[in-house]
């Protein structure tokens, strides 16, 4: 199991402390992630791409090599910041770099106190295992459990809803249980509109897509808990 958190200039010590405490509680690995914006990497290939020096204030061509150096420096700084802030975490730690679409709207709400626990399920998900963890986390943070069924058609979504309801039957947390559906990974960020941990299965196809994982990580206001099948 992994507890994954985005590391950037907006990350506060409180956010890392909360993720570290969750990793310690679950006995899982704490993973810091630095996200490289695909928009920058694509934009640098345009013939008119330029940058302005912070000291000289002079405009100069922005090259692929120059951008890569900047991104490598940013990643090193992010790793150093993550290591410094997570030094008291008892769980194993690691750091990785992902590339994806950065949504600047998400950063301002990362440090908000958990208002929900989010469970993302699909047909490949070990439902009982994820639901048990989701219920435990909802009780731990005293927040409602929101379950999102990731399905491309209504029949599959309906079957997932019935299976999850059967597992939860008689164990609905006092804070409540809400069911949502999403037709694709692109909709997940829109559904997850409250701060809190997001739980998903490691064998879900979208978890293995670097750009989809990076995009969701940057948008959600809380750590991502990845559960082994």
Secondary structure topology:
Blueprint: E1 2-6, H1 13-26, E2 29-37, H2 38-43, E3 50-52, E4 59-61, H3 64-85, E5 93-100, E6 117-121, H4 127-141, E7 145-150, H5 154-168, E8 177-182, H6 188-191, E9 198-201, H7 210-219, E10 224-227
Parallel strand pairs: 1-2, 2-5, 6-7, 6-9, 7-8, 9-10
Antiparallel strand pairs: 1-10, 3-4
Molecular structure report:
It contains seven helices and ten strands. With 229 residues, the chain is of the alpha/beta class. The chain has a single domain, classed as HUPs (Rossmann fold, 3-Layer(aba) Sandwich), CATH 3.40.50.620. The strands form two sheets. Strands 5-2-1-10-9-6-7-8 form an eight-stranded mixed β-sheet. The radius of gyration is 19 Å and the shape is globular. Helix 4 packs across helix 5. Helix 4 (127-141) links the parallel strand 6 and strand 7 (145-150). It is 38% helix and 23% strand.
Which features characterize this protein?
alpha/beta; globular; 229 residues; two-stranded antiparallel sheet; Rossmann fold; 10 strands; eight-stranded mixed β-sheet
Gyration radius (Cα, Å) is: 19 Å
Mean pLDDT: 82
Give the CA-CA distance, first to last residue: 9 Å
Secondary-structure element series = EHEHEEHEEHEHEHEHE
Count of runs of 4 or more consecutive helical residues:
7
CATH level-1 class: Alpha Beta
């Amino acid at each position: 199991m992994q507890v994954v958190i985005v590391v950037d200039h907006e990350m506060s010590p409180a956010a890392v402390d909360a993720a570290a405490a969750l990793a310690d509680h679950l006995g899982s690995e704490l993973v810091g992630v630095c996200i490289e914006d695909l928009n920058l990497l694509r934009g640098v290939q345009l013939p008119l791409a330029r940058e302005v020096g912070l000291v000289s204030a002079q405009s100069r061509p922005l090259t692929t090599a120059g951008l890569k150096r900047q991104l490598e420096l940013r990643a090193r700084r992010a790793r150093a910041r993550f290591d410094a802030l997570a030094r008291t975490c008892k769980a194993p730690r690691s750091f990785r770099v992902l590339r994806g679409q950065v949504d600047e709207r998400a950063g301002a709400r990362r440090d908000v106190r958990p208002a929900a626990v989010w469970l993302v399920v699909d047909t490949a998900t070990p439902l009982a295992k994820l639901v048990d963890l989701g219920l435990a986390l909802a009780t731990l943070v005293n927040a409602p459990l929101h379950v999102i069924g990731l399905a491309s058609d209504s029949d599959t979504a309906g079957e997932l809803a019935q299976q999850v309801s059967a597992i939860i039957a008689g164990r609905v947390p006092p804070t409540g249980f809400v069911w949502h559906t999403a037709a694709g990974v692109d909709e997940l960020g829109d559904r997850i509109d409250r701060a809190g941990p997001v739980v998903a299965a490691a064998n879900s196809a979208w978890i293995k897509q670097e750009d989809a994982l990076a995009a969701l990580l940057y948008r959600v206001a809380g750590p991502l808990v990845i559960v082994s099948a």
